[in-house]
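Reading is simple: each integer encodes one residue's backbone shape. The lines below illustrate:
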Amino acid sequence: MTTSTPTWKPPVPDPFSEITTADHLAPPSDHHVRNRATHRPVNHYQQSTQVAPAQTQAWANFLAEAVRNGLDPTLVTQWLTVLADATGSPMLPSLASMPLADYANLRLPAILTGLETTTHVPYLAGWHLRIVPELGHLPLRLITTSLITAAVLGWIADGCSRSTIKNTLAMLARTFEQAIMDGILERNPAHITGWQHQFQQAEDELRDPRTLALRDWDALIELADALVEASYNRYRGWGDVVVHSACTATRIGEVSGVRARDVDTDKWLLTCRRQTTPAPGGLVDKHTKGRIARFIPIIEPLRPLIARRLQATRGDPDARLYTGPRGRRISTAVLRDATHWDEVISDLGYEHLRRHDLRHTGLTWMADAGFLPHILMEIAGHRLITTTQRYFHPDVLRILEAGQALTHHLEELQCDGQITRRW
């Protein structure tokens, strides 16, 4: 009779239970976080000597538990050594894949050390409302500067104020600085640049997004054809993505997320329920920015293109409607590089046109076509009606037309004898 040996799982104690705030220097002040020239992290092998007693004890406990469960201590030691070489520091196994949220929960007192109490509220608000939902589930060592930059751009698009983003980034930077002191990271990925320029650009868009739209259908087709012509092997799919984005007022990532089952050809209605975004390891599909599916009408000029793309799916409801030439997901960066976007728009005289301006184009056209504000708000997925109302700002021509209409109205009243002509 054989007995099965229970699977051994290594203990997962709090890796910082024996490390107190006194063992470390406090995280650098916000001034030093913002000015890297005054803060130079020392070599992490030198830093590891500060936490050596706690790490040594934790490793000894881990090894003792492994031996008690029948494992070869030599093999366990070799595995721990390989792990230390791979991570660049004598790190505990439980830290190798620890999510950002779990790490901050363990080290929150140390992270907030040196901050005034009044500063805790905005920093923790940024942590709970923005950092945890966007990055908290990712392992600490897998969070890159590009991921943080993408998150910041999302916060800008959501309408967060400049001070809100600064507080959120400061909290994130302090968290990573503490991770450097604990020997988990070698550098701080939260030191990003250029976001304030993006913030100013987003503010300008919100003030007058109509100025970013293409003028008419012919201009859109001219752009799509030029991008196809500039792409490798003249792949027609790039032009289809551009036309679809402008006609439905959707983002490039949302165009990539469209599946065949999302299109209702009886009512000619599109359900926008997912988008393609960058993530560790490549592009992934996730919910839309508003986390709510929205319905978008498919206008008649777009229907032949949609029908052609549906035919290419061969009846597979899960097939993507739009892909790259090799059947892969599309992102705004992929579209830019594959079509030589910057060169093409410069040749066409649209030096400031970006991929997101295709969405501005669609919303502007819909507003000019007479869509009611609350309907356009649903189509766009805006959270605030004030954002949608910016697309209804009349241009100079419409202002002149309105003035002429008032003149005709007064002339009619004068003809009816209701007013006396005074001009």
Summary: The chain is about 50% helix and 5% strand. Confidence is low (pLDDT under 50) at residues 1-13, 17-28, 31-54. The first strand starts at residue 263 and ends at 264. Strands lie at 263-264, 269-272, 274-279, 282-287, 294-297.
